[in-house]
Amino acid sequence: MTAKAAIHRAVLRFVAFYYPSIPFIGFGGIAYMFCFCAMPDDTFSGCVRRRDLWRLTPLLLCAAYMSLLALVSMHTRLFLPRAPNAVLTDLLDVGTVRVGIPLAWLACVGTGAGFTFAIALDCVFVVLIARVLAIWSRLVRTYLHSGD
């Protein structure tokens, strides 16, 4: 049992394996729906033939951002026991609820908004992904103890 979460470690490992894939499944389904519903010939390759795959990049980068947040939170729970609980709360509260969900709505709107809006959202997601990676490396350097 972990002290912070009161959840058995085997359950945490199981969740850590599947939890980061949930955003890719969800946003991949939304991206497929946008291509599938917009095509008269009912094939996903029609989206490729029209050469408008740039519309799907905000959705996929949003999935990468949300998946990275899930991965960082699960890694912190499993392998960084000395990290404060406030870090996990801030990652999930600020990163997912206050930033991720509004940007997910914008990513869904961005598929039909236009090229410049999609590129701007792509830039925002790339900066957010880089920031989460920087936070993760800082957490590992600070709270990982090699003596135990």
From TrEMBL:
The chain crosses the membrane at residues 17-38, 59-80, 100-133. Keywords: Membrane, Transmembrane, Transmembrane helix. It holds the Pfam family DUF7378. It comes from the Eukaryota. Signal peptide: none annotated. Residues 2-143 form the DUF7378 domain. This is DUF7378 domain-containing protein. It comes from Oryza glaberrima.
